[in-house]
Design a protein that fits this description.
homodimer, 295 residues, alpha+beta, Cyclophilin, eight-stranded antiparallel β-barrel, five-stranded antiparallel beta sheet, 5 helices, globular
Chain lengths: 295, 295
């Protein structure tokens, strides 16, 4: 093996040996089947691009109205043949109708053109696995149903957090101007100032490199300036509408288990020999959300 | 203008109108020439790739030993003809000698093979513009000489922070095993657990998209599995060794000015009409570091 690989392997995935605290690998190895879940195909969105597929899991427990409207749009084949229109470095990739707002814009048909915002929800009955973290933007952070979330009190509000890979709904100045017909994925450092100001509806669980490596748009805010730069969307489908053989066989680590707590702590307290000055700290968007092929 | 652009323009760069607090645009417009600086060509590194150029500013006030060694390596033309060997999504792009450690590895000549770590420095005499931010990883965060930095007390330690675009020195398990012959740039959410465990030596100030859009490596940790995937480095030079005409004409906003304080506050308190629930908070890696063409 090349020395150079060894160097960085040592940096990033050192072997645990005789340590008191388990590493993330140790934790995952000790997991049992019930620590994993198979996401519901009815909440999985498959976006086919010419160069690859992006698979997302939606979060109806945070944004039921928007998920329902996206379901209508997808049912209408709204996205098929539309395009990725924006790629801004260290920020977002965005897609929708390049002609939106013009006379030849594609109609939403039976889907709504605007929706009440779902920037947050009531926290009272929401399962919420809080993690200890000094967060710049929220008084409490944790996970709910597999998604990173913030909370401002158990009886107050809870909201999804703009970590890398999260899926959001573009909107105009009016809070109700989003519909799900224009969507974006975070492809840079978490833009947390958007939290509670946009409806987040899910996250990428596979294939994000098909978005994050797109050439950056040279227009303002990373919009593609020329039609030729647009990246065509072949199709968008829900998993439940795909033949079984075409579905992604994936399991996601549950976020409401003791194993997940251990994983967070393994990433907070880096016991690997490589670390000479571990921070004993963790940020919400630095917590990995492991997946593995399902059998 | 297309509606879709308007939508997201509204989201991301709304027009300030009759607000109490200035926006970032307002702040930048009110800046004077002395709020800007031209980085020293002797501390600017130009990496030429076949598809574009990446320009970095080094930070000798944090890592004098490593910057000096990189100067030797570059003087020896060490990097010319080597390659980018790794691209890991939401993490780093890394370059160096694909044959490092093997018999045909390129020699460092008069440059050191290993160096004392510069993971942090004495904070006592370091100019440090602290910003108020609840940071998960450091008790104090701010800027020093144009770079994001952490501090654990005015007489204690200070260190560069792994924000997007920062340049670091790969190393093995031994803290002194880095030399600057193997370098990486952060191309994802800030991996803050690396702070104070790696020597950071600078940051990208132009052309980061030439790194961040590279295809991801399919090997472990994003290493390229096949030689054909390697991205050749045409050359690496210091700005002071380039003809004036080939140098990047750029000015960077100083980080030790009242204008910069105002910029931080404009990003903390989002007064634009678009924001319905501003967080009144900011993270250290969410502070923009503006640049503009110099005259």
């Amino acid at each position: 093996m090349r020395y150079v690989s060894l160097v960085f392997l040592a940096l990033l995935a050192p072997v645990a040996a005789g340590q008191e605290r388990p590493t993330m690998s140790d934790v995952l190895e000790s997991s049992s089947p019930s620590d994993w879940r198979q996401p519901d195909p009815a909440n999985m969105l498959y976006m086919e691009l010419e160069h690859g597929r992006v698979v997302l899991e939606l979060a109806p427990h945070f944004a039921p109205g928007h998920v329902a409207n996206i379901r209508q749009l997808v049912g209408n084949r709204y996205f098929d043949g539309l395009a990725i229109i924006r790629s801004q470095d260290n920020y977002v990739v965005q897609w929708g109708d390049p002609n939106a707002g013009a006379e030849d814009a594609r109609l939403h048909e039976n889907a709504a053109d605007s929706l009440d915002p779902e920037f947050f929800r009531n926290a009272e009955d929401l399962p919420f696995a809080k993690i200890e973290s000094r967060d710049a933007y929220a008084s409490e952070v944790g996970f709910s149903g597999g998604f990173p979330a913030g909370r401002d009190g158990t009886k107050g509000r809870a909201w999804l957090i703009h970590c890398y890979g999260m899926l959001g709904v573009g909107r105009g100045t009016s809070p109700d101007s989003g519909s799900g017909a224009e969507l974006y994925v975070v492809t840079g450092h978490a833009p947390r100032h958007l939290d509670r100001n946009v409806t987040l509806v899910g996250r990428v669980i596979d294939g994000i490199e098909n978005l994050s490596t797109l050439p950056r748009g040279t227009g303002a805010l990373g919009f593609f300036e020329h039609v030729e730069e647009h990246v065509p969307i072949v199709s968008v489908r829900f998993g439940s509408d795909l033949p079984e053989a075409e579905r992604l066989q994936i399991e996601l680590l549950r976020t409401d288990t003791e194993i997940f707590n251990q994983l967070v702590e393994a990433r907070r307290y880096r016991s690997e020999e490589w670390f000479v000055d571990p921070s004993d700290a963790i940020g919400i968007c630095n917590v990995p959300l492991p997946s593995r092929p399902s059998k």
